[in-house]
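Researcher: Next entry in the queue.
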Amino acid sequence: MKKFLIKTLAFALIFALTAAGLCVGIDPYNVFHPLSYRENGVEPNKNYIKMVYVLHEPEKFDTFLFGSSRVGFVNAQKLSGARAYNMTGSMALPREHLDNLKTMLHHGIVPKNIIIEIDDLSYRNDPDDNLRQHQRAPYEYLRRHPLRFAELYLCPVVALDALEIIRYSSRNAQQEADFYASGSTIVYGERGQYSPHTREDLSGPSYLDGAMAAMEEIARLCRENGVRLTVFVTPMHYATYTGALERGDYFSFLRRLAQITPFYNFSGYNDITLDSDNYMDTSHYLAEVGDRIIDVIWNGNADERLLAQGFGFYTDTGNVEQLIQTLEQGNALYYDAFINEPIS
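Model: Structure for this entry, 344 residues:
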């Protein structure tokens, strides 16, 4: 009986080590090779990889852009005078930006600038959902919960399933280089392939309180550490913006954000958001729009026509109602027409 138990334990150990080696070798989400990112066709865990990289290169950057995949089309290399890195990650939320900033400060990384993209996505998604997803579980959560890390990334079934994608994917050296150079690959001249007359269903619970609490703490940490904080609200495609209005809490979001920190507004019905040629899809704007954002928030150059429509409007507690009035004027022209478009 004793020999049987020893053999069984030995077999189990060999199987576990083999399975772990398989997972580490395939590493579809790049968490085991964060300093040698491989473009393999599987969406990587950008939050985890980028935080490991930044902590490994603490002197390399002095400016960080935080936000969801939408901020991935803002070209960090066009922030003149800054050594900027784009921390963009799929569905990244304010609570995760806060955790990342705390980790940076804890390790002695005190940025000169923090730029945060925020919009309806920031408060309509449950932050706990990201904890359960291979490509979105944030760095700090995984560091604090090693068993959860093992559960997510040491499962041979997950690794083998990913092989179906990896085997048909080709390496992209430019994207791999861009990942460490600036945090995102910026391609100009792209055009979206979608029907503009569709919009997604944005109904569901609100997590506004949690999002605003995280933003409030971010603002406090920036003040206490002498970090210049710049916040901007995404120029959402008109279909997405219409859905945000339909929820009924969008203006409340703007008012509450203004109480915490000044921000630049790019949302609303305006010449940019009403033109589907400016978007990859109803969630992501093109790099050319990202350049317009930089021109306003970094270079101080605003287009007067767009500004009158609310695009680039610098907002604080003193003029947030003026912004909302401007947006309501646009709503009066377009909302009724767009609200009846089909949801896809």
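Model: DSSP finds 15 helices and six strands in the chain.
Researcher: Noted, moving on.
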